[in-house]
Amino acid sequence: MGIRLIQLIAENPRVRLVAAIDRDGHPLLGRDAGEAAGIGRLNVPLETLAALEGRDGLDVVIDFSHPSATLELAKVCVRNGVALVVGTTGFEVEQRSALEAASATIPILISPNMSRAVNLLMRLVGEAAAALAGTADIEIVERHHHLKKDSPSGTALKLAEIASQASGADQLVHGREGLVGERKPNEIGVHAVRSGDCPGEHTVSFGLLGETLELSHRALNRDGFVRGAIDAARFLAGKPAGLYVMADVLDCKQ
Description:
- By secondary structure, the protein is an alpha/beta fold.
- 34% of the residues lie in helices and 22% in strands.
- The chain has helices at 2-11, 33-36, 67-80, 93-102, 116-131, 154-167, 223-236, 246-250; strands at 20-21, 46-47, 60-63, 83-86, 107-110, 137-144, 171-174, 187-194, 201-208, 211-218, 242-244.
- The strands form three sheets. A five-stranded mixed beta sheet has the order 7-8-6-9-10, covered by helices on one side. Strands 3-4-5-11 form a four-stranded parallel beta sheet, with helices on both faces. The chain has a two-stranded parallel ribbon with strand order 1-2.
- The radius of gyration is 20 Å and the shape is elongated.
- The two termini are 27 Å apart.
């Protein structure tokens, strides 16, 4: 994601890359970010988090890292009055709470998926779940590359949350094994597949008697996530402190 962010920011005349950050000890620290991304020199070195302290010309930071790193980044952004776009997933409840608390000081946008199409999928899932409440069995299947750390994906969990709120089904079931008995009417099944280099697929199935409705999104590469993150950064620049979501960017609130 970091490499593709560098590449697509360089192509976009409405944004400018002023810093590129990675973990302490990364083998490419000090190298030009553009050269590391294969697009030529940008005169922006790959640096550690400390380099953001007091950095001039920095409006928004885009983060795709790890929950623990995100929390440290949020502290730096708070100290320096910099907005933060968070695409990282896998937060524990207390981590998410700490991140949201930082939004009292700076604008923070948090989304498990930055894709415009996925966020439209979320709206459609809510509409379908409400229309079919009490009559459809809702199952969610997500597929990602075998290096993904968290499971199920943050997007799948968000889809489940939306479907639950709209339908009233409030029991998440993560996979099934053995003699589990008949499917309960208040269940939402969530199933994670880890295979190859798949950047992300999500399908929400509404099973009725004699017919099935499926709503799906398949990412062919990471560009949709990256372009959405750039749109989010442009939206967030100059906004007052607060907690934002991609629906704010797309003007399609759930």
